[in-house]
């Protein structure tokens, strides 16, 4: 998964590197010294891979089988691979311009190229994207544990299946308990590397989901109880062509991790490791995405829902179907619970930088840290109880903030080229990324708006 060997040579910063406030945004500079270095001598390669992979593999994976239903298997898998390559290319550009400009945060790179307005625009997009993504996490957790309804059909949740329908296993109460007992404690950590163990566990849980889903699909395929799904999309009319573009925002959202790359890089003992870390993470995540998309769509075909986890409430037609379904759903719900604090970390930093750019660092103000965290958790919790579908949330964030963070901003920085290091290849690649991003997501927004208008007037 390599876009050329164009990463700049980087100097190892070693254990004695100076940790600035922006370099480890929530660590006080007053603590930099022998005590801090003894306690934290740099994040490990594996820890960084797990944290970046956890940033990537989130809720987007649950909608990827639905994108196969829209695109067909061959174009769908090809698009996953294409976006993986584009993501590596955009991160490489971002890191290269960060190095030359001595920028240690995404906002610094945007500020270096476009001034204060550029920094603020980036922070706004990160806030919109991360709030949208975490709302999706909560929606999926609610779907898994409490059930959901789609097209007039109710898909029961795990708790409903185990204990029946009660007030205490309803969506509102389950999400409230999850927020208080799981999200709030995990969101209280002030350093990304503190989450390396939960990130490793979250990746393992995602793999469990993929392995079980693949096993069920292969078993049913061998006994002839399912048919091969369509390889290419059905295009009977012009409207169906526009509909193909609605899958693009979902694919964009699935690979967005750019806002955490600097935080992970800044905590590395040797910053030259960021290149193999990015490649390893993208390779791992792309493999998981392709497997999930293929086997999820193979298993459910044209009945695949926007949130494929909701499909696992039915009898799968194999021995121990109920047990396997519950394991799949609970394991991925637990995965999302562990992903949540990684995304929340970047959200809190960017919102604080947007609202309190001249205030003292967030880590030194426990009251502001607590109030910001509580306010964000409350907003996400309330939104998750009112937004009906993860597809709706993905379409909004993916077509606006996510595509800007992942592709438009890195390309714009390269075209602006404030330090004169961009090559012709970089410029051409940047123009291509911007054209693809604007065209495909513009058509996706138009298609979604047309569908919504037609459904309301019908």
Give the SSE map:
Blueprint: H1 34-39, H2 45-56, H3 60-71, H4 73-100, H5 106-146, E1 148-150, E2 153-155, H6 158-163, H7 171-187, H8 196-222, H9 238-244, H10 248-255, H11 258-266, H12 274-300, H13 321-355, H14 366-384, H15 390-416, H16 424-457
Antiparallel strand pairs: 1-2
Helix pairs in contact: 2-8, 2-11, 2-12, 3-4, 3-10, 3-12, 4-12, 4-15, 5-7, 5-13, 5-14, 5-15, 7-13, 7-14, 8-12, 8-13, 9-16, 10-15, 15-16
Keywords: Amino-acid transport, Membrane, Transmembrane, Transmembrane helix, Transport
Organism: Dendrobium catenatum
Subcellular location: Membrane
Spatial order of the strands forming the largest sheet = 1-2
Helix content class: 55-70%
Instruction: Please report the first level of CATH classification, the CATH class.
Output: Mainly Alpha
The CATH architecture would be Up-down Bundle
Number of domains: 1
How far is the N terminus from the C terminus? 46 Å
């Amino acid at each position: 998964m390599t876009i050329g060997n164009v990463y700049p040579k980087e100097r190892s910063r070693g254990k004695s590197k100076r940790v600035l406030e922006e370099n480890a945004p929530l660590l006080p500079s007053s603590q930099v010294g022998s005590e801090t270095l003894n306690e934290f001598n740099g994040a490990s390669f594996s820890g960084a891979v797990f944290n970046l992979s956890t940033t990537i593999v989130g809720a987007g994976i649950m909608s990827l089988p639905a994108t196969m239903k829209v695109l067909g298997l061959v174009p769908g898998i090809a698009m996953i691979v294409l976006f993986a390559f584009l993501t590596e290319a955009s991160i490489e550009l971002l890191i290269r311009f960060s190095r030359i400009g001595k920028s240690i945060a995404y906002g610094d790179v945007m500020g270096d190229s476009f001034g204060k307005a550029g920094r603020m625009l980036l922070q706004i997009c990160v806030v919109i994207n991360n709030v949208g993504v975490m709302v999706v996490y909560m929606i999926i957790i609610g779907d898994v544990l409490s059930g959901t309804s789609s097209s007039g059909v109710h898909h029961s949740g795990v708790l409903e299946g185990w204990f029946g329908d009660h007030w205490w296993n309803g969506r509102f109460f389950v999400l409230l308990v999850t927020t208080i007992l799981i999200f709030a404690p995990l969101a209280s950590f002030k350093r990304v590397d503190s989450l390396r163990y939960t990130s490793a566990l979250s990746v393992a849980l995602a793999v469990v989901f993929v392995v079980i889903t693949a096993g069920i699909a292969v078993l049913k395929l061998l006994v002839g109880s399912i048919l091969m799904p369509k390889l290419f999309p059905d295009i009977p009319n012009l409207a169906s062509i526009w509909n193909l573009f609605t899958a693009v925002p979902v694919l964009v959202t699935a690979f967005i991790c750019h806002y955490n790359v600097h935080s992970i890089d800044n905590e590395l003992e040797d910053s030259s490791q960021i290149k193999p870390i990015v490649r390893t993470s993208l390779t791992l995540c792309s493999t998981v995405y392709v497997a999930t998309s293929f086997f999820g769509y193979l298993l459910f075909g044209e009945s695949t829902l926007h949130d494929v986890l909701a499909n696992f409430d039915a009898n799968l037609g194999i021995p121990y179907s109920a047990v396997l379904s519950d394991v799949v759903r609970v394991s991925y719900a637990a995965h999302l619970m562990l992903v949540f604090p990684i995304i929340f970390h970047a959200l809190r930093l960017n919102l604080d930088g947007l609202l309190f750019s001249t205030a003292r660092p967030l880590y030194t103000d426990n009251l502001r840290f607590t109030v910001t965290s509580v306010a964000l958790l409350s907003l996400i919790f309330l939104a998750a109880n009112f937004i009906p579908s993860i597809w709706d949330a993905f379409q909004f964030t993916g077509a606006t903030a996510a595509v800007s963070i992942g592709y438009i901003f890195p390309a714009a920085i390269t075209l602006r080229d404030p330090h004169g290091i961009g090559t012709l290849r970089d410029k051409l690649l940047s123009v291509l990324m911007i054209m693809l991003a604007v065209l495909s997501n513009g058509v996706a927004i138009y298609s979604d708006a047309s569908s919504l208008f037609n459904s309301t007037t019908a």
